[in-house]
Amino acid sequence: MKPICFYYGDGRLDRLAAYDKVVLQADFYGAEQLAVLKSHGVHTLGYLSLSEDVGPPAPWQRPERNPDWGGAFVHVGDPGWVGHVVDQAKAAIATGFTGLFLDTLNLEQTYPEDLPHLLALIAAIREEARPDYLLANRGFGLLPRMAELVDGVLFESFSARWVDEHTYAPWPDDVLEVHATVAERLLEYDLDLYALDYADTAELTEYAYRRANEYGMLCFVSDRILSRT
């Protein structure tokens, strides 16, 4: 089986069955579909945002929004937000997801005061939803404590990135050097390591796979909206 797939569409069970782990939008798959994937030995991870809310206005939301995707940033420690996220996690597991993918963990530059709350939220998800597997997207500012709470770490956009809706490119050398330093640090932890890169050519795709392998990461390459399987 191929190691991992990130797919934010729906359906395509036959294609997804070829992977060991698949990260999916939790609302797009029901119990019957998840059971089919499980019968093929696939570990399904439901998407969960921990610091951004795409829902209607709520008291935990900050005025600022993600400029790329439009979600509202939140006060992570707000009890209402904590309960909302934990309920989402429990619902995903109850539906049949075997684990969860924890996104929007990079707060060290924007809201560093929320990092302790973010760690507490991850711990609450682990304790109350009881997933078999937790995969964190980046969250490097939460280390080393986060390494005790999750099973794997994804380095999104490790080598290649989307520049806009139609353009993909490798990172400049100075950014690649910073990413390499972080990747070497990740090797110190007992965690599964993955890379998710963005490319639209065979050459850039091969570059991403090759570089991820050099740093002990299993890689998946997709487009900006994660529509490939």
TrEMBL record:
InterPro entries, alphabetized: Aldolase_TIM, GH
PANTHER family xref list: PELA
UniProt protein name: Glycoside-hydrolase family GH114 TIM-barrel domain-containing protein
Originating species: Nonomuraea mangrovi
Lineage of the organism: Bacteria, Bacillati, Actinomycetota, Actinomycetes, Streptosporangiales
